[in-house]
Amino acid sequence: MLAAALVRARGEGEGALDAVAGVFPPAAPLADRLDPAVAVDVLVDFSGVGGFDRALQECLARRIPLVSGSTGLSPAQVDAAQRAATRIPVLLAANFSLGVALLRRLVASAAAALGPDFDVEICEVHHRAKVDAPSGTALALGHAVAAARGQNFDVVARFDRHDAPGPRVEGEIGFAVLRAGDVVGEHTVLLATEGERLELSHRVSDRTIFARGAVAAACWIVGRSPGWYDIADVLS
Known about the structure:
Layout: E1 5-6, H1 16-20, E2 30-31, E3 43-45, H2 49-62, E4 66-68, H3 75-84, E5 89-92, H4 98-114, E6 119-126, H5 136-149, H6 153-156, E7 157-158, E8 173-179, E9 185-193, E10 196-204, H7 208-221, E11 227-229, H8 231-235
Parallel strand pairs: 1-2, 3-4, 4-5, 5-11, 6-8, 7-8
Antiparallel strand pairs: 6-9, 9-10
Helix pairs in contact: 4-5
């Protein structure tokens, strides 16, 4: 049962309360903080960089799990979440699609099996209003490739070729970003070598898959021991 829906207090964001009014049933009142009298088993956060700290504080205060889909977090915020994971269960995911979770596994497996002879390029497409680039999902796929190959992601990731003309550097992981129209989300990992290429893709046509994935993660994490979890863990 949905216990409450947290939003920014009036004055902290124009129309913040009104923007979600009517979305939730009366049994799940809108509020800018959790009522101590309301029993909560898990907090699901999609508030973004601005609201993540507060969501984490609420979970620590109540000793309840945090499931968060906020992207673009600063290194300090990620560090705070990792430290919190020693006290509560924490699951952070850039994408709550179970299909994307499986894609990461497939990409890691392919990268490890094919080895450095195959170049890796990651292309993502999103709607024109998306702020961060590359997407959190694209970065997660890149990290999966780097980990599978025993590489340092920060060293091999290539986000822009405009300022570095010349042939492709062996072992690098390239990223391409497209923004147009109302595209919900598309990610393709290209692994190519002389004479052949493999493409692993995922496309979203309905945003409700993210809600379903978040609910699945929330149900899965309740009762878990403190620790750092990933959406791929839910597949098990």
